[in-house]
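In practice, a research group might receive sequence data for several interacting partners and want a quick structural hypothesis before committing to experiments. The following worked case mirrors that situation: the sequences arrive first, and a predicted assembly follows.
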Amino acid sequence: MLDINNLSVDFHTDGGVVHAVKNVSLSVGEGEIRGLVGESGSGKSVTSMTILGLLGTRRAKISSGEILLNGTNLLELSQKELVKIRGREIGLVSQNALSALDPSFTVGAQMVEVIRLHQKLSKADAYKEAVRSLELVAMPDPEQKLRAYQHQLSGGQRQRVVIAMALAARPRLLLADEPTTALDATVQKQILDLLLEINKELGTAILMVTHDFGVVSHMCDTVTVMRQGSIVEQGTAHQVLSAPEHPYTRSLISSVPKLHLDDSARTVPRGQRRLNVFQEA
Ligand code: ADP
Ligand code: MG
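A structural hypothesis for the assembly, expressed as tokens:
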């Protein structure tokens, strides 16, 4: 579904050229959850923002590569064409739910607006769709939440709203950039489990940007490891977790406390099961 080939992105700053992404190639298949992992500054967010044409600065230059979505090179589309792809075919779940929501409008007003951007619905029907979307993300008392402002919601509830908005047009692919980093551990796990559930129920593929191999172990089928703008290794989550080839990958894995005690047992059958599914396809 998504194929990134030899992508390079540079920033032309006053201090010189920063090669933020160097020759990155990765793919996400239908229904696949791929982790994109690396320390802060390794180029994960720049890679995922480039997919949506959201680099947002004229200093950024894509110096090589292509990003194919079902065969269409997104880098050759106009901003107008990209706007249609954003939300409708690729949903974005950003790092910071607070910045994704507008404090001066109710949750309902924002959700209705997003839903009507993608679907020709009356306000009343869009409202019903907003209720359905909040039910999809297991939000307690959706109607009351639609009347609320973001400051009246907890961090986890806000992130559920952001996920519901990203799913409003039922995109086939979600880009989730560290969607749980700002949340405490219990809520983190709830949101990861919610994304897993959505993947299972709707078949939504996910590019899961994270610095945390615990997240990979918990939910990813495949993983790409980035360091200083380059890919150091990639493979199935099971392969990379059980036999990491690069010392950098090994250090990222060993920095997750209790990973092998808690999660690796679950990753093995899941990884193998998914691998079989892909081989049959
Ligand atoms: P990650 O998401 O892996 O933490 P990023 O993709 O945000 O890392 O950043 C990769 C590199 O690109 C970093 O060296 C960062 O400083 C640089 N970078 C990101 N955005 C800009 C920008 N707007 N201008 C200059 N450099 C940038
Ligand atoms: Mg980032």
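Before designing any experiment, note the following. Residues 34 and 195 are 12 Å apart (CA to CA). The chain is about 45% helix and 25% strand.
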